[in-house]
Write a structure and sequence with these properties.
This protein has 198 residues and is an alpha/beta fold. The protein has 2 domains: 2-107, Ribosome hibernation promotion factor-like (Double Stranded RNA Binding Domain); 152-194, SHC Adaptor Protein. It has 5 helices and 8 strands. The chain has helices at residues 2-9, 23-33, 84-122, 124-131, 155-165, and strands at 12-17, 43-55, 59-70, 73-81, 152-153, 169-174, 180-185, 191-194. The strands form 2 sheets. The protein has a 4-stranded mixed β-sheet, covered by helices on one side. A 4-stranded mixed β-sheet has the order 5-6-7-8. Strand 6 (169-174) and strand 7 (180-185) form a beta hairpin. Helix 2 (23-33) runs parallel beside helix 3 (84-122).
Length: 198
């Protein structure tokens, strides 16, 4: 009953882009999204956009885009299939996988934070002695400097090198332009490339 009450409190906006949304489709989307509030304290809003796109292989593709605003996060999923109901199912499944991944990270972060707190408590006596005579500052400091030779490489080679190192970013000299470029891993798993304007 409590879950039903929370689900009713979550506003779900279902709209069509160049298509009419039937009552059945609206009810189905609302029903599928009704289980999301159980994962969060507050789901402020949910938006579902239904549309039809031309697909070269399947003809008319049924597209569903879902955006949910909750607990300070924005979750988004887009799915396409030959059937609108299937697209809704897949989009909600994708959202649930994102939520589980997020919750796993939060739990892991809490464990790490607790471990760090314990370690800090054990080292507090040493830290207090080391801090004597040193001026305390709340400003962030540069605690490590790395220098390395930059051989020119293509962005594809830089991606491979970054993945081999297990880093989230990689600085390299672009073989085509000879400029310094920065490659970084995006939250969606793809890569971004920052290049200076010439």
């Amino acid at each position: 009953m409590a879950e039903r009450k929370r689900a009713e409190e979550m506003p779900v906006r279902v709209q069509g882009k160049h298509i009419a949304v039937t009552d059945a489709l609206r009810a189905y989307a609302e029903q599928k999204l009704a289980k999301l509030p159980r994962y969060f304290d507050r789901v402020q809003d949910a938006q579902v956009v239904l549309s039809v796109a031309r697909d070269s292989t399947r003809g008319r593709a049924q597209v569903v885009e879902v955006t949910v605003w909750c607990d300070g996060l924005v979750l988004r999923a887009e799915e396409t299939s030959e059937d609108m109901y299937t697209s809704i199912d897949r989009a909600v499944d994708k959202l649930e996988r994102q939520i589980e991944k997020f919750r796993s990270r939060i739990i892991e972060k809490r464990r790490l934070d607790e471990s760090r707190r314990r370690r800090r408590a054990e080292q507090s006596a040493e830290s207090a002695l080391a801090a004597q005579g040193m001026e305390s500052s709340s400003e962030p400091r540069i605690v490590r400097v790395k220098r390395f030779a930059m051989k020119p490489m293509t962005p594809e080679e830089a991606v491979l090198q970054m993945e081999l190192l297990g880093h989230l970013f990689f600085v390299f000299r672009h073989a085509g332009t000879q400029n310094i470029s920065v490659l970084y891993k995006r939250h969606d798993g793809d890569f971004g490339l920052i290049e200076p304007e010439v």
